[in-house]
Amino acid sequence: MRFRTEVLDKYNVSGNKISSNAYRDLVLPWDTPVAALFDQSTFSRKEFTRQELYSPSGSGNNSTDTAVKAAVAAVKADPLAPSVWKHIENLLDTVDPVTRWREAHPGLAGTEEGDCVKVLIKETVEAVKDGQAKIDLGNLSVGMGLKTVVLMVKGK
Question: Which of 27, 60, 86, 138 could disulfide-link 72, Cβ–Cβ 3.0 to 4.6 Å?
Fold first, then answer.
């Protein structure tokens, strides 16, 4: 949480905030000057979990689900394994505010001592090693950015 509030918040743009809230705060067409072009009664919102999205039958039998289960098993087996932390680092490397932070701090970006993601990973690994933190990394890696929201509305 501190990473987001103290490091990344000022590099969030409105689009990041809207998407992190699953588009609940998105301005919809009937709240704009083009309202007459849309039929509000046809509005539909559907949220899909990773399993619903990749497993039409809900069975969870697919390569994506298998990879996630393997990652969770690896975390449970050794939460300090470098491969676990590299996976989390790779996920965080794709976050837009991280990219903007790195653009604003080119001298620190990518360095072990100053890059925001590398520092977060290092501090978290140390906290886990010292017993100061117990983190369910399986839930963290499974839950990061894995919801899809579809909004539909019919034009008039």
Answer: 138
Range of the domain at 112: 2-155
pLDDT at position 112 is 94
How far apart CA 96 and CA 59 sit, in angstroms, is 32
> What type of residue sits at position 101?
W
- pTM for this model (two decimals): 0.64
Strand-pairing partners, residue 39, are 154
DSSP states along the chain: -HIIIIIIGGG--HHHHHHHTTTTTPPPGGGSTTGGGEEEEEEEEEEE-HHHHH-TTS---SHHHHHHHHHHHHHHH-TT-HHHHHHHHHHHHT-HHHHHHHHH-TTTTT-TTT-HHHHHHHHHHHHHHTTS----HHHHHHHTT--EEEEEEEE-
User: Please, which residues have CB within 8 angstroms of residue 50's CB and are 6 or more apart in sequence?
Assistant: 64, 65, 68, 142, 146, 147
CA 117/CA 88 separation, integer angstroms: 9
Q: 67-90 pLDDT, tens per residue? A: 666 666 776 777 778 887 888 898
